[in-house]
């Protein structure tokens, strides 16, 4: 590929990525301003290019610009949250990475990559407000489903060992670390521990650490103080909201490594400080953490701090996967049949022998959650029958020991259309397998979460 062609490709990439890109030269004049940045700030490229930055953004001070700061100090600014008004007066919240551009030991400009998190920030604020409302003493009754040990079903000896350990853990206040694959019931066990403990009358709050961007998770956990950054207000985080109760941190290995150190300090010292605040607030919170990957592997991969793990792993509980407790597959299925008979007002009595065999032989990578979804799907296929047959059991070949081959006839389609259909089919089935969790689906597919979101939008899933 010739240099001219490479330049053309780079320009195409630049103008089609989701992140905003803004580059200034050593004088502070804009030389690159991509379409995403223009859309974010409601500006036209022609009104920004080849003009001094502060001339275009008249309300911005020199010290407020991360681009000019990086240019002046020759320093890289990582994950900087910025809140400002665009041309239409709408408040925009971005996470920026800004760095000086040095070529042959000479400063030639500065580059900024901005990710728009306005909607995500609003969502996280709403989450905090709703959780505060839900878990307030006057509102908590009847608002959320409470799971106890009575809701846990299983007869397998290794599974019962984990449940019994949970019952013992409920009698003391020590931290608990639950390891189990996706769909094994980690939150179910965590809630059961809470509602069997002396903290049962106080909040149980769960947060999936993979469900929010790194930049927002710290504020969600510890809260924000007014004036801590532009636009910040006094808002309690989950630790304050869960005070006196239990905070369940699911997929804790998805928490940024640096933030894990702050969490460790909170667990050791018993107080938090809101982002941008100066006041320390004592919190009385029991933390239950979980991961869907073996802790030893997470520590080796530098995804989980060893010191944090040992602080949380006072009571370790390992929930066995469904493939290792085959004796629970049929009893669990019958348990779910009773549940959905009541929910859907049906009268399904039993599973056929072939249906039992089909369930028993499946690998169940989605564990009990996948099994429940399979039984629920079977209900949708039955009208007045009283028996679930093997024909009603729909299982896709996405388990670890099988090769997935979609049943497509390319017919008159071209290869691109055929591959697009195949890709859509695989993504849909993977999302079904992980109950719609985009982070887990991306991990299973071996692609970035952002890439998967782009494909979902592109394929109209």
UniProtKB/TrEMBL annotation:
Name used for this protein in its record: Arginine utilization regulatory protein
Keywords, alphabetical: ATP-binding, Nucleotide-binding, Transcription, Transcription regulation
Xref: Pfam families: AAA_lid_14, HTH_8, PAS_9, Sigma54_activat
InterPro entries recorded: AAA+_ATPase (IPR003593), AAA_lid_NorR (IPR058031), Homeodomain-like_sf (IPR009057), HTH_Fis (IPR002197), P-loop_NTPase (IPR027417), PAS (IPR000014), PAS-like_dom_sf (IPR035965), Sigma_54_int (IPR002078)
SUPFAM superfamilies: Homeodomain-like, P-loop containing nucleoside triphosphate hydrolases, PYP-like sensor domain (PAS domain)
Residues annotated as domain Sigma-54 factor interaction: 152-380
Organism from which the protein derives: Acetoanaerobium pronyense
PROSITE patterns, alphabetized: SIGMA54_INTERACT_1, SIGMA54_INTERACT_2, SIGMA54_INTERACT_4
């Amino acid at each position: 590929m010739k240099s001219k062609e490479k330049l053309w490709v780079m320009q195409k990439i630049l103008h089609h990525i989701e992140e905003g890109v803004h580059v200034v030269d050593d004088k502070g004049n804009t030389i690159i301003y991509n379409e995403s940045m223009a859309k974010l700030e409601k500006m036209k490229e022609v009104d920004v290019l080849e003009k001094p930055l502060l001339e275009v953004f008249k309300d911005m001070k020199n010290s407020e610009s991360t681009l000019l700061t990086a240019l002046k100090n020759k320093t890289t600014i990582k994950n900087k949250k910025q809140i400002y008004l665009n041309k239409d007066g709408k408040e925009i919240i971005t996470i920026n990475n800004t760095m000086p551009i040095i070529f042959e030991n000479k400063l030639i400009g500065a580059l900024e990559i901005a990710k728009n998190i306005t909607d995500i920030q609003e969502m996280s604020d709403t989450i905090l407000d709703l959780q505060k409302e839900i878990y307030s003493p006057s509102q908590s009754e009847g608002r959320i489903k409470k799971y106890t040990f009575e809701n846990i079903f299983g007869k397998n000896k290794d599974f019962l060992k984990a449940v019994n350990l949970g019952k013992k853990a409920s009698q003391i206040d020590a931290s608990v670390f639950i390891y189990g694959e996706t769909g094994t019931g980690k939150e179910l066990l965590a809630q059961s521990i809470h509602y069997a403990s002396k903290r049962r009358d106080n909040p149980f709050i769960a947060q999936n650490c993979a469900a929010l961007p790194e930049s927002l998770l710290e504020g969600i956990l510890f809260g924000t103080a007014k004036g801590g950054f532009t636009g910040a207000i006094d808002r309690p985080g989950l630790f304050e909201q869960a005070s006196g109760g239990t905070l369940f941190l699911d997929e804790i290995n998805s928490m940024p490594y640096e933030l894990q150190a702050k969490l460790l300090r909170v667990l050791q010292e018993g107080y938090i400080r809101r982002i941008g605040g100066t006041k320390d607030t004592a919190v009385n919170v029991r933390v239950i953490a979980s991961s869907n990957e073996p802790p030893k592997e997470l520590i080796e991969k530098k995804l989980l701090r060893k010191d944090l793990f040992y602080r949380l792993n006072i009571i370790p509980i390992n929930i066995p996967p469904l493939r290792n407790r085959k004796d629970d597959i049929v009893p669990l299925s019958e348990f779910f049949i009773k549940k959905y008979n009541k929910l859907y007002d049906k009268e399904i009595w039993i599973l056929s022998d072939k249906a039992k065999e089909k369930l028993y032989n499946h690998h169940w990578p989605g564990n009990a959650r996948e099994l429940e979804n399979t039984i629920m799907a079977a209900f949708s296929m039955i009208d007045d029958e009283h028996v679930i047959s093997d024909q009603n059991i729909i299982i896709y070949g996405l388990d670890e020991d099988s090769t997935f081959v979609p049943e497509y006839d390319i017919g008159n389609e071209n290869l691109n259309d055929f591959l697009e259909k195949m890709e859509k089919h695989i993504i849909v089935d993977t999302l079904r397998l992980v109950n719609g969790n985009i982070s887990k689906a991306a991990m299973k597919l071996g692609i970035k979460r952002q890439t998967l979101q782009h494909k979902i939008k592109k394929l109209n899933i």
